[in-house]
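DM from R.C. (forwarded with permission)

"hey, sorry to bug you on a friday — could you get me a structure for this? deadline for the figure draft is monday and I only need the backbone to look sensible"
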Amino acid sequence: MSTVITLIFIIINVYEVILLLRVMLSWFRVDPYANPFVRILYNLTEPILEPIREILPQSGMIDFSPLVVFVLLMALQQVLSALI
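My reply, with the result:
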């Protein structure tokens, strides 16, 4: 059981890095269709971010959906830590 939870922790940490790269790329004008690396980042993060964007109220030009995902991932890690 501990090995499975450790693997889940690793997957969560890798996804957090991917999400952080996506957030950092949003500061620059990068065409996701022209750059394959950016396209991969968008394909990995958009299925999680899009539903959260639909739930959150509009806040101008600031997208808070990555912040919500980070908080949810931290909460999941806390729950998993309690199971160990």
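R.C.: lifesaver. The radius of gyration is 15 Å.
me: no worries. Residues 2-83 form one domain.
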